[in-house]
Amino acid sequence: DAKTTQPPSMDCAEGRAANLPCNHSTISGNEYVYWYRQIHSQGPQYIIHGLKNNETNEMASLIITEDRKSSTLILPHATLRDTAVYYCIVRVGYRDDKIIFGKGTRLHILP
Amino acid sequence: DAGVIQSPRHEVTEMGQEVTLRCKPISGHDYLFWYRQTMMRGLELLIYFNNNVPIDDSGMPEDRFSAKMPNASFSTLKIQPSEPRDSAVYFCASSLGEMNTEAFFGQGTRLTVV
Average pLDDT over chain B, rounded to whole? Predict the structure, then answer.
């Protein structure tokens, strides 16, 4: 079973920052927070991951609370191409640890 | 690298027929995953391999499903006999087993069983 809780859907205006929340209150000390997204009809795509420090790459930023029980994925300037289902996943991220997808958040970018 | 390659992209078959889905992982990756996606159940992990050996097949729905990985560059998922409820998009993914590497997904095979 997925160890995360996400809102089923969100809207964001094009050009604005999209902030996608994720709750993972039972996260273990050695588990990382991963984000993937799935654009319609395509396979899921990796976005970013982190342990406890905030992370940023060319796609997004990941903010993890100090108690690590929740996190927020930030798309700084959302475009129509960011319309997708976003999955927050908790896993050790090593060797035989499976990637289990929950229901994710369907993000609609509004023109 | 061309990424994870799945074939066919679309498959329509009649109930009772055998269906074989194929996957070529990214060269050098030692983990391979098979997922199934439906509207009702979302993305489900069916089975995954490490160095061509099946590690966990607990997600395989029933004996009609089988998966093999004869070598590091090829895997198959077979359904025999197929049923209409097997209709779904099947994704293959591969990754390195090192710490915190991402999984790369193929474009999927859309299977329709009529």
Answer: 94
